Amino acid sequence: MCGIVGAVSTRNIVPILVQGLQRLEYRGYDSCGVAVHAGGLKRARSTARVAELMAQVEAEQLEGQTGIAHTRWATHGAPAVHNAHPHFSHGPGADAAQRPGRVALVHNGIIENHDALRAALQARGYRFASQTDTEVIAHLVDSLYEGDLFEAVKAAVRQLHGAYAIAVFHKDEPQRVVGARAGSPLVLGVGTTAGVSAAQGGELFLASDAMALAGVTDQICYLEEGDVVDLQLGKFWVVDREHKPVTRPVKTVQVHSGVAELGPYRHYMQKEIFEQPRAIADTLEGVEGIVPELFGDGAYRVFKEIDQVLILACGTSYYSGCTAKYWLEAIAKVPTQVEIASEYRYRDSVPNPRTLVVTISQSGETADTLAALRHAQSLGMRHTLTICNVATSAMVRECSLAYITRAGAEIGVASTKAFTTQLAGLFLLTLALAQVKGRLSEADEAQHLKAMRHLPAALAAVLALEPQIIGWAEDFTAKENALFLGRGLHYPIALEGALKLKEVTYIHAEAYAAGELKHGPLALVTSAMPVVTVAPNDALLEKLKSNMQEVRARGGVLYVLADADTRIESSEGLHVIRMPEHYGPLSPILHVVPLQLLAYHTACARGTDVDKPRNLAKSVTVE
């Protein structure tokens, strides 16, 4: 959560900082701000979006060659200007707020010992203007400053407990920015100014995501856990968690700006839903046959050795893992456990060194999932694999094996194409494990590959159902509650459908395995409660029909996504949309798409901010 951009240059870097914030706004949009060194410290802050901050910066003619900027997802303190970053420290004393600022700082993460630090700083005379944990760091750096900002930051981070990525500068040291990271991502960008290389005095950047620097530089250095970095014109130094000098490689990284054209679409969410045929095709590009090496060198040995799978993920990625459990156990016959990452690391578990630990993350920077991965590794489970959409992410760097999905930049906060491409990658993993274990015949492999290659065309046919989905959305507009039902392989799809609806429409939605209705949720069913049912023509269809009858007997209104041959017909209180074809094990990839469209069009009808729903952010980099 939260986005950071910083720069040291010989030109006015405010436009670059603000442009970087626009590209990072998916990380948080409760408030935003920018601070520069312009003789002294100057800043602009806003509780509106970055576009409004840009107008404010232009009106105030804010300029500077050294600066930091931030877009916020609130953790400590409500979204308000006084809580917005950057934060200043004015030094101790009752009149501190009236004196020029000395330290400017932005922060991503959560400082767990902020209360104790706040009390100690207040005892020294520091006055706090916000409720944030971030202001504590600014005052701490100020209290430790003795003429060298790099030394002050190194001393400060030794006292911090929790997660952080910070960028800070001091009024007495123009053209110097210091950054540090632990538990939250931070990258260094090496740029040029008018053809001047970094070694000759060129500009340098910090950002929480390389995307923020697209078009500015493609020379990226990924800082490691515990690193502190010192940026000055034409030179930078990095020290590790022990504060010993280290060299971090600078790599050429092709990054997209994330500011894609909407074309004929109203919102990015709609655009990304309709990009799914292409995203799936790109994710499967080059897959001619099932070989373990699709997941990296040494995958065959690892797959041969493991005897169970542990999946760690959060949110939508967790539901993709829940779907994969059905595949892995039914096709590969490998026992599979799926854990919510934020829960796994805090409970006692029984580690098995013959486990393949699989993490799933769109960004590859999800704090809970990274922490769960490291916890699993600390327990002796060394075989790790990630399904991830960002090849340069921490998740990919920290796992020994990986499958990179090719969903492309996903700008809408509610994940759509990232989810379906994760499912595609997980199905490939299932087939690869089945093959290595001797449980995939050549005929079955050929059949599965044929079905996967047909997925883009099948998805296009499902997307053609949009007009019918819009009709359903009109019914949902005035509702405040909804139930989603599925069985077996499609129960996680019901969970994902409910999540999508609540994320973008703010309608309270719950999902259940349909057989659980009679064990409690049936008490909620009335004519005012729409019940969305995923009804493929599989082995559980007749059981599901009985569950639907339970709903109808209580006056509930059903909205059913049914395969063509299920013999479920529309009638009073029973609305049916027919899927183009039954798709066997890959059916979840198709059935989730109408649920995405239902959430999207209901949100449009209710007038919510579809791409930036309240209280949420895209990349969850805090615990």
Describe this structure in words.
The longest helix has 20 residues, at 417-436. The model has no long low-confidence stretch (mean pLDDT 90). With 623 residues, the protein is α/β, with parallel strands linked by helices. Helix content is 34%, strand content 23%. A hairpin with a 5-residue loop joins strand 7 (162-170) and strand 8. It has 19 helices and 25 strands. Helix 3 (114-123) crosses helix 4, helix 15 packs parallel to helix 19 (587-606) and helix 17 packs parallel to helix 19 (587-606). It is globular, with a radius of gyration of 26 Å. The strands form four sheets. Strands 3-2-4-1-10-9-11-15 form an eight-stranded antiparallel sheet, covered by helices on one side.
